[in-house]
Amino acid sequence: MTDEQQDEQFYRDTESIAFPKLNDHQLSLLEPLGERRLVKRGDLVYKAGQRDLGLTILLRGEIEAFEQRDDTEQILATAHEREFIGDVAMLQGTSALASARVTSPDAEILYIPAVEMRRALAEIPGVSKTIVDALIMRRRRIRRDREFAGMRVLASRDARDGHQLDDFLDKNRIPHRLVEFESEQGQALTNRFHLTSRDLPVLITPGGRRLRRPSLREVATEAGLLRSLAQGNESEIFSDLTIVGAGPAGLAAAVYAASEGLNTVVLEGYAPGGQAGSSSLIENFFGFPTGVGGGELTWLAQLQAYRFGAKFSTPSQALSFNYNTDGEYRACLETEGCSAILRAKTVLIATGADYRRLEAEGREQFEGVGVYYAATACRAGRDVSFGRRGQGTPRRSRQRYFQKNVGLSFASGASAREHRDPLPDRDPQNVWWEKARTNRAGKYGDQRTPNGSDAGCFFHDRRETVHGLVTVGNRARRQRIHQNRLRRRGRASLAREQTSTWSARDELAGNFCSG
Q1: Is the pLDDT of residue 106 over 90?
Q2: Is residue 173 pLDDT above 60, yes or no?
Q3: How many CA atoms lie within 13 A of 488 on its CB side?
Q4: Which of 95, 96, 294, 388 is the S-S candidate for 276 at Cβ 3.0 to 4.6 Å?
Q5: Which residues on adjacent β-strands are paired with residue 320?
Q6: What is the Cα Rg of the chain in Å?
């Protein structure tokens, strides 16, 4: 079955989930929360880029959602009686990716404001499951649509800043396309919008706006990720719980706190998910017997927190923290880009680990365009340099994937300072030569990158076939697990023998292990 056939099968199988019809009972629960409106042919229900959209239920007539791209329109969906329009952006309060207009001579809609919609999704189970499942499925269908553009990032092929924008939007689950400046499509966009190479990278929004050389905060503002926590001219913002960091721990706390009715604010410096969000497959998380993608898991957790009313601000860092003994809201935080002081009854710091970078000369110019600190499925087709293997990512499945899809180049040293056990005092070239001889994965040496630039004694030679993956691990932890496994089996004598063998075999490699 071809990719196109698989897509068609997916769209057929998910049609009923993505576009359900509300029954009489569900409409009776929702109608007191909104108001009825009469609209005519050509009226826009909402426009691309609009934020804080409410729920629009079609009572009579027909409405279509469409994407305006350059001089063409792509019809995304058509709503009929008892159906509703929109996608996950309504739940998150982010920018709408498309526009919607009335196509029938006249129509009647039930419009429920965003605040009332979120309250209904949190408090009325009879309607929340149907609506939330539909919104999530629509976003999945959009991300799978080969024709849908969403936001477009126009950048040079090897430009680090362009790939950074691509990575930021990808990790924040914003549908987009990375268009290479050198491609035919890139040249067409350049001529159409009168752009030059000095303008790159350029963010082209669904509404047609062009942001030249934007910062991450400008991109986040355009996408609706970065939201002002203050209303109007407020000098102070109050919350029951402020969470700094939206990794798995921060997201779990946000879900639990918001579900109990606490006013919850979450600050995230780059993208929700943390280390788990960059794992291709997590197989040891309870409730998912066949495993779940880390990005999918943390995205659903974020949507769950949104549903209960948690407020997210991305990217937003806590700059300072003070404790005030007066009043009920004693914790005072100064946040990036906000003049108001965030005051909270409780602050949960869940920033996770901040791993050090490779200490190799010239590595900065390769980060994001050849050197990555998490090698995931989105890197397919690119040269990948392994810094470490993320927790929860199965070693064998990753090895099979990258042997099939990715040309690998490994980095020397691989940031062993991430871990508690230092490397032995040995020449790193000898270490890598031993691993190359053992695993046939290449050797450390003065190589050059595929594009011919000098990587500073830092890359392996690239092989068409990779027989083993070299990753960084924690030798003490591996050895402890190894000993505990043997002890549970009641084989004390064998445990002593294996422990001795393990140390001897691992002495030269230090913190390195083979996959």
Answers
A1: yes
A2: yes
A3: 5
A4: 294
A5: 334
A6: 26
As a residue count, the chain comes to 515
Rounded distance between C-alpha atoms, residue 333 and residue 164, angstroms: 28
**Residue 497, pLDDT above cutoff 70:** no
Q: Which residues pair with 152 in a beta bridge?
A: 177, 204
Which run of H or of E encompasses 161? helix 160-171
The structure's pTM equals 0.71
3-state secondary structure 293-326: CHHHHHHHHHHHHHHCCCEEECCCCEEEEEECCC
Where b means 16+ CB within 10 Å and e means fewer, 416-443 reads bbbbeeebeeeeeeebbebbbeebebbb
Asked if 458 and 362 count as a contact pair (C-beta separation under 8 A), the reply is yes
* C-alpha–C-alpha distance, residues 228 and 244, integer Å: 16
State the CB neighbour count (10 A cutoff) for residue 5.
9
| Model pLDDT for residues 307-319, shown as the tens digit of each residue | 898 999 889 888 8
Pairing of strands 470-472, 512-514: antiparallel
What are 114's two structure tokens?
A: 């965003």
How far is residue 190 from each of residues 177, 178, 197, 260, measured CA to CA in Å? 15, 14, 9, 50
